[in-house]
Each structure stands twice: as C-alpha cells, then as structure tokens.
Amino acid sequence: MRPSHFLRCASAVLHMTAAAICLTCFYGIMMWAGLAALSFSAFHAWRVTGLKHTGSVHKIAVNPQLRAAIFIGQNQTAWEAILLDSSTVTANALFLHWDTGSRKIWHAVLPDMADDESYRRLRVWVRWCQTKDNTAPLPSAKDDFPMP
Predict the structure, then answer these.
(1) CA 60 – CA 109 distance, rounded (Å)
(2) Mapped to the 3 state alphabet, what secondary structure does the chain carry?
(3) Cα gap 29→42, rounded to integer Å
(4) Fewer Cβ neighbours under 10 Å: the N or C end of the chain?
C-alpha cells in the first residue's frame, strides 16, 4: 500500500483551516497554545497518513484459504488477522477492523492507496468472502499449539 494523497491533502487543509480559525478567534496565550497543539496534531497526522507510524498497516495478503495476514510497522512484521464484523465498506473507502489475537487495529483503505485491481479484489474479499472459518478466534501467543 502507498500513502493516500487524498487523505494527506484533506488533513493539511483541515489543519490549516483550524490554524486560521485559531489566529482569528483567539489572542494571547490561548492563540499560541492552540497553534502549538495544532502543529503537534499536524505532525502526527502527517506521520499517520504517510504510513510512518509504528502501527501502520503496509500490506494485506489473502491466502487461497481466504485467511488474511497484515504487515505492520516499518519492518513489516506479518500477523495473521481476522476481519471483525465492525468493519465497514462504503462506496469510496474501506474501514477495516482487524483482530490479530493480541490487539485490535482499525485501518482505513482509500482507493488511491492501491492500484484499481488490488483495491477491487480487497473490496470483494471484505464484502463477500468472509466465512465462519475466517471468524474463528486466533489462539493466543501463550498457547502451546501452532497456528494453522
């Protein structure tokens, strides 16, 4: 996956709008505190939308048995994951809720984050290829048996 150009632009526009409001509606210490908070927020948003955050999902792989693995972080550690029922598919975005067994991850996928065919296949898999077998709970890391 690549960073979403649309998401980065929307984040920048929203932060600039908030800074303009802060400059026009506040004065003194409140204005400076607001601008400092907005600069921290903009920096964090730029890292998250650029997939540079430690919990960013960089790749989604689905095997022939329709089980998913997500690759997280800069070193792209692979985790077998289950897509939870709270995931949402809209016309222009996928809001995926993953369970890796040790943690739950929310992940937004926009069409400009992948090529058209990969986005279409992921969308079809999310919408139609979830079986009862996909939703079985993963064994925890402390269990003695290997994962299938």
Answers:
(1) 11
(2) CCCCHHHHHHHHHHHHHHHHHHHHHCCCHHHHHHHHHHHHHHHHHHHHHCCCCCCCEEEEEECCCCCEEEEECCCCEEEEEEECCCCEECCCCEEEEEECCCCEEEEEECHHHCCHHHHHHHHHHHHHCCCCCCCCCCCCCCCCCCCC
(3) 20
(4) C
pLDDT digits (tens, 9 = 90+) for 40-71: 999 999 988 887 887 788 888 888 777 888 88
Predicted confidence (pLDDT) per residue in 61-118, tens digit: 888 777 888 888 777 788 888 888 888 888 889 999 888 888 888 888 999 988 889 8
The residue type found at 119 is Y
Q: Give the Cα separation of 125 and 11 in Å (integer).
A: 29
pTM of the model as a whole: 0.73
Q: Which of 66, 67, 48 is nearest to 58 (CA)?
A: 48
CB 1 within 8 A of CB 59: yes
